[in-house]
């Protein structure tokens, strides 16, 4: 089955050059060899043109928030790719930029000898800007959307709430569910390595096969990145992501609906870092859930009323999980793909901007600097524990992440300052930071995808209010506080 047209964007107005030596897949977001529409599209072009496939995965050193944590997670995936693509006979070049600007010219050099270039379409962080700059290459450039179950271009407007988006999904998604990417797009891929490409790439050496932890540590230590943010205690890569997914479906999915909000219970999927870096894709997660549930499209409800449960025709827990994976995650992609200002205060709903503005000068019971917050030096043991989880593990339990943001709003000089601090802390420390879904969570704190709440309160105005005291009453947090250095 070919890649759906709705997922393909032609970035420049050029035809494929049949005189080229290979088809180049420039891998930037969907960092996996399976269930990947972009890789499938590159493979299809290689077959059509009778050329080998060359895959380029490059990691620059000067992106904002580059650190040992982010680099290590990505490079662990690249090490897996070196082995996987070699075993499959596919030419693959894994380039880690040793200093800012050292990789300049790499894509252009490879494009000169390519028939065309296929890359990933990703709507957030610096990737859209990078894609626009790449349009100058001398051959056809296609960007392919592998982000979610619903193609980004299936929606032509930004949805203000999860409910509104869910209603749209329930009408639109069924016709896209059968158009899934191939599980193994490399099964029929042409193999071989172009001698011309090999000569070109000598200037930009690749990761070596069999790169071990010692070599990886040495490589990262020498890079001009933030070394104060250490690696997380779990590995990156598509193989590890698949193991995490399998473990979740086998052990935790059944209890997800009832236990996911409890920080004392390990009931969440743990997949967000792998989804962010593309080591796992939404279709891959969806298929694992379908298999666990024994589901078929015939189980779908005919109702499109936007209800959170009942539409899929699955168990309560599977429906709750898919609402997070599909509705909430793809709602964030919808915002980022259609609103260039998605990360700015002005992107908030007018009611939220108004009420926060009216209360911007309200006295704060506590004011903390970014440094105090980053070091978890507040009076609140629950908040401190959540911040320590972020710095140690690169993630915060979902319920506590909401509280984490609400208290930053309460303890900052202004709402705009709170937004800057949330983005800065999240994107520096969270492995799944810089992601559409991550921005959804941050902006939800300030009213995005929500409604006005009463009674109107100091600082918050009509924005939803949360307290640590209510959280402590709702959950038994002793073990969580002890684990992350707080007082039980």
Report on the architecture of this protein.
The chain has 488 residues and is α/β, with parallel strands linked by helices. It has 3 domains: 1-146, Rossmann fold (3-Layer(aba) Sandwich), CATH 3.40.50; 238-338, Serine Threonine Protein Phosphatase 5, Tetratricopeptide repeat (Alpha Horseshoe); 345-483, DNA Cyclobutane Dipyrimidine Photolyase, subunit A, domain 3. 43% of the residues lie in helices and 7% in strands. The protein has 20 helices and 6 strands. The protein has a 6-stranded mixed β-sheet, with helices on both faces. Strand 3 (53-59), helix 2 and strand 4 form a beta-alpha-beta unit. The radius of gyration is 23 Å and the shape is globular. The N and C termini lie far apart (56 Å).
Based on the model shown, name its key terms:
488 residues, alpha/beta, Rossmann fold, Serine Threonine Protein Phosphatase 5, Tetratricopeptide repeat, DNA Cyclobutane Dipyrimidine Photolyase, subunit A, domain 3, 3 domains, six-stranded mixed β-sheet
Biggest sheet strand order reads 1-6-5-2-3-4
Measured between the Cα atoms of the first and last residue, the distance is 56 Å
Instruction: Specify the CATH homologous superfamily of the largest domain.
Output: HUPs
Helix content: 40-55%
So, CATH architecture of the largest domain?
A: 3-Layer(aba) Sandwich
What is Rg? Answer: 23 Å
Class based on secondary structure composition and strand pairing: alpha/beta
Please give the CATH class of the largest domain: Alpha Beta
Task: Count structural domains.
Answer: 3
Instruction: State the total count of DSSP E strands.
Output: 6
Percentage beta strand: 5-15%
Question: In sequence order, what are the helices and strands, one letter per element?
Answer: EEHEHEHEHEHHHHHHHHHHHHHHHH
* CATH topology description of the largest domain: Rossmann fold
The number of helical segments is 20
The low-confidence runs, each spanning 5 or more residues with pLDDT under 50, are none
